[in-house]
Amino acid sequence: MTDVLRRGRTSLAFSFLVQGVAFALLVTRIPGIQNRYGVSDGMLPVFLAAVPILAGIGSVSTERLVRRVPPSRVLRWSQPVVLLALLAVGAGRQMAVLALALAAFGLAVGGLDASMNMLGVSLQRAYGRSIMLSFHAAYSLGGIVGASLAWVGAHYGLALWVSYLPVVLVLLPAALVGSRWYVDGEAQAPEEKGAAAGAGGGLKWLLPLCLVMTVAYIGDSTVSNWSAKYLQDVLGSSEQMATVPYNVYMVTTLLGRTVGDIGVRRLGAVAVVRAGALVAAAGFAVVAAAPGAWVGMLGFTLLGLGLCVLVPQTFAAAGRRAYETGRPGASDAAVARLNVFNYVGFLVGSPLVGALGDAWSYRGAMLVPMVLVLVTLVHARSFAPGADRYGGGHERPRTADVGRSSNGL
């Protein structure tokens, strides 16, 4: 590997980590945000739903934007907007400020998520082997760091802006410096950009991957939104113990993604995705049947190990298969469109489990994401490329596939 690619991989991993920190700082301090602005329980779901909806708009807009500018440039300027919007959420006082800050956060997150994964897919193509899970492992690590910082802020009763300001002051300049070494995919000639504009037209094969992405985020949002309530209200744990499952889930997600690329290289993406779906389904089954809190935490541990591989491999499969169509820009278009279903799953998951829990039972509600995640088995072959270049490493990438650095190297 060239120094350009190594620096590109490191800088992109840092960007994933920064995004994990920022997102965790926002979502784990929602009660503090609600108290600061006086947001009622009835209005809170509106604010929470607006962020993923606007993020979806941002992702779709990024598909069009990268026809004119490289994804590295979108990422370079969307990440500071996310961090500054986070600081604005913590520093404001009026409802209008919160609405504007969350709108900016959502739109920028959509562009950031899409462009990060575009760069990750193109770097994996240049490396000629699976590295996509390592980027999402950095995101998981950032989430753990962000959640830990949020806990410190809440524990010591720090104002939101006091919690957010040091993080932004450290991460924003570091992200801007690191952005010098982002590596884009192969350049498009001007005459190819017209072809790229229609690249998304032939992406019907993307639909199974969109379904898998949605299901994965339904599972993830179920854990993030309902694990504490489930452990306390259904399994009878203490309030303190009820905070443990999500932390365990995040740690096992990090561990699974850290070693996941090795599994993809040795076993192939299809086998890893099937195993992940089965382990995740087993986790939901254990949670639903758990007689007590400790068994319930075992179920959430299995969920982290199973779900962690699905999202990175779905992005990797979409980018790889789009690239194999030979259409300029098809890979970026596929990643941007697939990224929208990240937010669809997030929007559907929490209300779905809550409605089923109230109408039926929370144990029964846990069986629904279990069945949904098993749908991944039906579409597992969608993760198999025409030739397993990047999972098994049987074929080296062509010279033209090695990207260019965003600073012109």
Can you walk through the features of this model?
- The relative contact order is 0.15.
- A two-stranded antiparallel sheet has the order 1-2.
- About 8% of the residues have low confidence.
- With 409 residues, the protein is an all-alpha fold.
- The longest helix is centred in the first third of the chain and has 33 residues.
- The protein contains 16 helices and two strands.
- Keywords: Membrane, Transmembrane, Transmembrane helix.
- InterPro entries: MFS (IPR011701), MFS_dom (IPR020846), MFS_trans_sf (IPR036259), MFS_Transporter (IPR051788).
- This is MFS transporter.
Distance between the termini: 14 Å
Mean pLDDT: 88
Number of strands: 2
Strand coverage percent: under 5%
Helical residues, percent:
over 70%
Based on CA inertia axes, which overall geometry fits?
globular
SSE arrangement, N to C: HHHHHHHEHHHHHHHHHE
> What strand order characterises the main sheet?
1-2
Catalogue the unreliable spans. Answer: 188-200, 387-404
**Tally the helices: what do you get?**
16
The biggest sheet, with number of strands, parallel, antiparallel or mixed sense and barrel status, is:
2 strands, antiparallel
Broad structural category: mainly alpha
What radius of gyration results from the CA coordinates? 20 Å
Subcellular location: Cell membrane
Domain Major facilitator superfamily (MFS) profile: 206-409
Membrane topology: Multi-pass membrane protein
Keywords: Membrane, Transmembrane, Transmembrane helix
